[in-house]
Design a protein that fits this description.
GO terms for molecular function: transmembrane transporter activity. It comes from Halomonas halmophila. The complex comprises the extracytoplasmic solute receptor protein and the two transmembrane proteins. It is a single chain. The chain has about 190 residues and is mainly α. It has 6 helices and no strands. α3 runs parallel beside α6 and α5 packs antiparallel against α6.
Length: about 190
């Protein structure tokens, strides 16, 4: 098992005190949401395939359940990606800067991204309230459609918190961090023969 796989298996926040505890608890919540979502999607899809080929009928609610699970996995996954420094970065200018400049730029990027995430969470809540007012329901399952979008602001808030924590980590550290536990740098991918 590589160091990276071990770190993902047992996440430990790089933040001190209560912030580290909150970060670790959020990471466990994300892991549970992602694991349950992927497992439920697999079970739902397999059940639909079995139903189609064994009974000759598809399960009428499979598409809606998978839609709910995709939304849940996607918006729980953005926080997970931020936590592990897995977002796509454009780094030509960033890489040319000295360590102090990279750290300052990372703080600015993390704070700006955090603000954007909270802004998107606010608008996601407004959208959910609009759906609630309209009273739309899912055709097959029959429950209100606004419920499936609750994951959207939650994912944005968790991601905003993660980027805020990344800015704090960079303000309190000598190294440059992509997240609270991932130090900036490139791994040597060359293999010895």
């Amino acid at each position: 098992m590589t160091d990276e796989e071990e770190a993902e298996k047992h996440y430990h926040s790089g933040l001190p005190g209560i912030l580290g505890t909150i970060d670790t608890l959020i990471s466990k919540l994300e892991a549970i949401i992602l694991a349950i979502g992927v497992l439920l999607m697999a079970v739902n899809t397999i059940a639909n395939v079995v139903g189609r080929f064994v009974i000759g009928e598809s399960l009428f609610f499979t598409g809606e359940i998978n839609r709910i699970l995709i939304i849940m996995i996607t918006f729980a996954g953005i926080g997970y990606a931020a936590r592990h420094g897995r977002h796509i970065r454009m780094s030509a200018i960033y890489d040319a800067l000295p360590v102090g400049g990279r750290r300052a730029l990372m703080v600015a990027i993390a704070l700006f991204t955090s603000i954007v995430m909270f802004f998107l969470a606010y608008y996601a809540v407004l959208y959910i309230l609009t759906l609630y007012d309209r009273g739309r329901v899912l055709p097959a399952l029959g429950f209100p459609i606004f419920i499936i979008y609750v994951w959207v602001p939650l994912g944005f808030v968790i991601t905003g918190i993660q980027y805020l924590f990344t800015a704090i980590k960079n303000l309190t550290s000598r190294d440059v961090y992509l997240s609270t536990s991932v130090v900036d740098g490139y791994k040597d991918t060359e293999t010895e023969v």
